[in-house]
Amino acid sequence: MTEEAVVPALEMRHISKTFPGVRALDDVSLTVMLGEVHALLGENGAGKSTLMKILAGAHPKDTGEILLNGKPVHIDSPQSAMELGISIIYQEFNLVPYLNAAENIFLGREPRAKIPSFVDFRKMYADAQAIIDRLGVKLNVRTPVNRLSVAQQQMVEIAKATSRKSRVIVMDEPSATLTEHELASLFTLIRQLQSEGVSIVYISHRLEEVFEIANRVTILRDGRWVATEKVADLDRDQIIRYMVGRELKDIIPKAPAAVKEPALRVVHLNRTGVLHDINLTVHCGEVLGLAGLVGAGRTEVARAIFGADPIDSGRIELFGKPVRIHSPESAIRHGIGLITEDRKAQGLILGMAVRENTTLANLAALSRFGFVCRAKEREAATKYVKDLRVRTPTIEQAVQNLSGGNQQKVVLAKWLFTKSKILLFDEPTRGIDVGAKTEIYQLINQLAAEGVAIIMISSELPEILGMSDRILVMHEGRIAGELSRAEATQEKIMHLATGGE
Amino acid sequence: MKERILRVLTDYGIVLMLIVLVVYFTISTPNHIFITPLNLINITHQIAINTILGIGMTFVIITAGIDLSVGSVLAYCGLVAADMVKHGLHIGGVTILPNTPVPLAVLEGLLGALVVGGFIGSLNGVVITKFKVNPFIATLAAMTIVRGFAFIYNNSYPISNLPNSFDKLGGGVGGRFMHIPYPVWVALLLVVISHFVLSRTRFGRQVYAVGGNEEASRLSGVNTNRVKLMVYIIMGVLAGLAGVLQAADVSSADPQAGLMYELNAIAAVVLGGSSLMGGRGTILGTLLGALVIGVLNNGLIMLGISDFYQQVWRGVVILFAVLLDQAKIALLARQRRVAE
Lengths: 501, 340
Ligand SMILES: Nc1ncnc2c1ncn2[C@@H]1O[C@H](COP(=O)(O)OP(=O)(O)OP(=O)(O)O)[C@@H](O)[C@H]1O
Ligand SMILES: [Mg+2]
Description:
The structure holds two protein chains of two kinds.
Chain A: E1 10-19, E2 22-32, E3 37-41, H1 48-55, E4 63-68, E5 71-73, H2 78-83, E6 86-89, H3 101-105, H4 121-134, H5 150-162, E7 168-172, H6 180-195, E8 199-203, H7 207-213, E9 216-221, E10 224-230, H8 236-244, E11 262-271, E12 275-283, E13 287-292, H9 298-305, E14 313-318, E15 321-323, H10 328-333, E16 336-339, H11 343-347, H12 354-359, E17 367-368, E18 371-372, H13 374-387, H14 404-417, E19 422-426, H15 434-449, E20 453-457, H16 461-467, E21 470-475, E22 478-484, H17 490-497
Parallel strand pairs in A: 3-8, 3-9, 6-7, 7-8, 13-20, 13-21, 16-19, 19-20
Antiparallel strand pairs in A: 1-2, 1-4, 4-5, 9-10, 11-12, 11-14, 14-15, 17-18, 21-22
Helix pairs in contact in A: 13-14
Chain B: H1 2-11, H2 13-28, H3 37-62, H4 70-87, E1 89-91, E2 94-97, H5 102-129, H6 135-153, H7 164-167, E3 176-177, E4 180-181, H8 182-200, H9 202-212, H10 214-219, H11 224-250, H12 261-271, H13 283-302, H14 307-337
Antiparallel strand pairs in B: 1-2, 3-4
């Protein structure tokens, strides 16, 4: 396929877009060929999602034009984009929580029954299950979406977008919530779509994926186009240089823990049907990695410790003393923090400002006689925005207007501000760009060095391997095994995670 | 330019509406009697109760809740107060403090009403938080139950012939300070306090947080149930207070008092820019909302518009204000589009 000879499937030319106080896109162009997987890269807040939302009709553009197969098209609503064969998997989920997976997949195009305006449910469930099975995910399509794990929800999103007849499919960080297993099925699916002539725009902060799946990349920086090149002509360092505009040491800096006294001990913890006899100990200054497949119960362990879910039996000890934690409030009072995996539903008050979100979990520290001291609050928020390099025009910006990665940083800011002694990180770098990721790793190390006990849940094996002093692997609600930092390898983790002996 | 006008219209819509109404009624009432100090004081007197209820309702609505029982609570608490003023402090037939001297009896009545109001509010709160009943349904039930008890209280008779010192609380003869009726002072004081509570305190912040995203708030250590319980208690106490003021104003506690008051309070809150979806709203907005309703009612009466048409106009104004709010949201979205 010589690129000059054929008309591109999709062309976005000279697109600009300004939000109040933010120039999100400045004269950005993107060309995607037929059957191409085109990676779109850039730091948090570079404008990737905005560009794709314009393509999908979710945001109007200020200037520029869009061509499909060489013909200019007018996209002014999500419907018109859909009619033109453009599907998008948004970075933030767009599922209807109380509908089940099948209803979500077929929302708005339910198969008709013989009786007019009735839905052929049997066909709908059968078709939906077939789509889901093809993706290699284990889930019953009759389960309401709000009872699915984040990764399962993501797979439902993918099923929804790919089951439509589309010419162009945009995937905005589809892999952020997936584990290796689901990722593999996603890639199989992408290759299949590609062979059917579908063009794919793939956004991710995991560069390994880009090298594996993409043909070409376009890189944005600060809302501007930086480069478009064949993946084969690039290496990792070059891509990072394009993205951040400077050299970056891309190693996970790990200072091994000087292990001290136990901070948190979980003994025989049970939650019927979810968790079975969980025993674990984290020491001050230690990073304990929690690995496992999606649905293995890692998040549930964190939630149980944090008092977010009730437990049926078992006990929790803090610094050698048994404690009763029956609510997140009491967990926080005992010095435990939980960085949740689903920032939109559980991490943030989207309509509130960066400032208010940052301080929400520790308002007491800023209050006297119940009154919040505004100066102190602004100072705290400003500090964390600076420390974590949150890209926002001001601390008064509503977090819903931040890019996904920057929202994640606000969640981190909130928990750093609680100054907890035990921190449970559930997918802390989800959606965070390479540069910022290194910063977060450094931050975790620094916290550990200060004596904070850390449990880190992550589906990215290199992250788990690089950051943890010890690794527990979970399988179907049980702890399947423990690996020391020295003995842990990807293979050993996967072996335990899939239930191997 | 057009954008500008729209912007001003939507940002200050409720203020503009108030100004337009005041100007219009001033011009069109005979001898401009609308704008006389006496009438203006009258208006504030008339809206005092709705403002007090609106304050409580603002708390409730910001948490994405609603309280339909306030009219009934108002009536019931008015009866409780009147009864205690007349017959001393007693609970369920057991007299605790009989025949207290009048000034003390008035205090007893007032406290009794506040406690009973707060108690009913806490029942609402418990039903909503512990039993997870939808607030609309829970308070709808409370509305009819409490109204029923109000009729049962004195065999559906009002309690009248209340001592003069009680009546003064209502702002009638002798019940004024610097020409302004007591209920207006009370409402003003509450506006100031609650404004600071909502905008400056930890509790206030938590009220917004719960309405914005309950689960995220819970996981941030906010005791969401306690926050919700508190707002219903605040609402109940304020409804009890309103009941006292109302009974004092007309010198009679009537089981039929406060019919539809919940809807007026909700209207004031929504006119003031609060979102029924929660997370958004201010006390000052609610005050403006109550003023608009009060000015409208008063002006229409001054103009001699029939009662039926008054109702129509009230509805039109509410609809208009809410449309303005929608326009504001749409405008914000468009600003993104044409930004710069
Ligand atoms: N609705 C909005 N209102 C105001 N600013 C916005 C809005 N949406 C995005 N922005 C801003 O536009 C810029 C680009 O955001 P965008 O979401 O496109 O980034 P991104 O490249 O997708 O980043 P990430 O990797 O973190 O997802 C950011 O600075 C963001 O804060
Ligand atoms: Mg994005």
